[in-house]
Amino acid sequence: MMLSCYGLIKKDNKDYWIKFHRELMYISQLIAAESIELVFSGRNLTSSLSKVFEGYPKMTYQQRAVAQDLSYGTLRFLGNLDAILGRLLERPIQDEFLRCLLLVALYQLEYGRAENHTIVNQAVNAVSKSKCPWAKALINGVLRNFIRNKKELNDTLPHSDITKYSYQPWWISKVKEQYPFSWESILVAGNQHPPMTLRVNRRQMNADEFISILKENNIEAEKIDEFAVTLLKALPVEKIPGFFEGDFSVQDYGAQFAAQLLDLTEGARVLDACSAPGGKTGHILEMADVDLLAIDNDQARLSKVESNLRRLNLNARLLVGDASTPEAWWDGKQFDRILADVPCTASGIVRRHVDIKWLRREDDIVSFTKQQELILPSLWRLLRKGGKLLYVTCSIFKEENLNQIEKFLQTHNDAEQIPLNLNTLVNIDNGQILPTAKHDGFYYNLLQKK
């Protein structure tokens, strides 16, 4: 149920559930529509929601949570919803806000559990309090037409991959070309709700001990490995015991391999390049007592690293610096280990950042590969002989991953690949971890300097 994930209601208490929706839904619909309108103008969803929230200072926590759910869900299935809307309209709507509000309401009608009449009435209420109050009849007519003809409309939608999978055409074509045997499962995985996976701080406890604590607090969780668990029901972190004490961090299971693959040793001099927001930084320090320097080229993002380390009661040297120009910040002492978590298209984590599916352009891949081609050799100079560099992206596109490493090896005779030692819980091929229900998509390649 749409709201039950926030623990607001009981599933079988239907009367209270409907009343509760009527009290909050139209505000959430307005926020979601305004946020999606900003996304369509080129802004990412996180900043769009933050911007729109400023205009609703009296909204409740529940309204905020539902607005986020509606925004993510609408963008997750935008290809399908846009096709439905196209069939419902005689001509395209010129006002982008109205289009977004209809898409949000259609998402609720198609994928939600609220009563149809409640969704429609609240959408009409929403538009009456918007900049387009004249459109009440339009909103009401389009949505009620969908309810009356839902099955017929869905049966006659265009049989296209865009409608079926909700990605841009170039994205679908690229995934098909690069993964001819698994392209469909990759696209489907990108549309799933991401699991809430936690990395247990091994300096505090292990997964079994942490699950016992969760059970005492009536929180159900599943053990993935010795230091990773997934909650069966997502919760705000402040509601999970031990967060402020540093007992755990929220981190996708696929991302938890970075610190492990670095092959850390006590006392090693380690560089975490492009470190923000600090998830992997904290994991490195949980794994071993090392001399760690974490850099990022953005002070605001670096502050997030500092905040994460403070919560975990861990310490590292933090420095604003560009990984592609180390001469501006490097002290001349080489590193034993380097984590190069380079900027990328983030095509492996789209279920967490659904706006990426619609904001990213194919030529963005070229821009990112140029950045990566600058960063990798620049960091390589900082690595001592015998040292190891782990190249990481959260992308599934080969231009940023396997192709990038192959080009680097052709021009660096002192580099050799080290086989990755991963457990059998993930499917990895040439360093590529493809997204599944359990984890996002990542690429890892471990290089050693001869």
What does this structure look like?
The structure is a single chain. With 450 residues, the chain is α/β, with parallel strands linked by helices. It folds into three domains: 4-157, N-utilizing Substance Protein B Homolog, Chain A, CATH 1.10.940; 196-250, Sun protein, domain 3 (Alpha-Beta Plaits, 2-Layer Sandwich), CATH 3.30.70; 257-449, Vaccinia Virus protein VP39 (Rossmann fold). It is 45% helix and 15% strand. It has helices at 14-40, 45-53, 61-76, 78-88, 96-111, 116-128, 136-148, 150-155, 161-165, 169-178, 183-189, 207-216, 257-261, 279-287, 299-312, 356-359, 362-380, 402-411; strands at 196-200, 221-225, 228-231, 248-250, 269-273, 291-296, 317-320, 335-341, 383-393, 415-418, 428-429, 432-433, 442-449. The strands form two sheets. Strands 5, 6, 7, 8, 9, 10, 11, 12 and 13 form a nine-stranded mixed β-sheet that branches. Strands 2-3-1-4 form a four-stranded antiparallel β-sheet, covered by helices on one side. Helix 6 packs antiparallel against helix 7 (136-148). The longest helix has 27 residues, at 14-40. The N and C termini lie far apart (56 Å). The model is unreliable at 1-20 (pLDDT under 50).
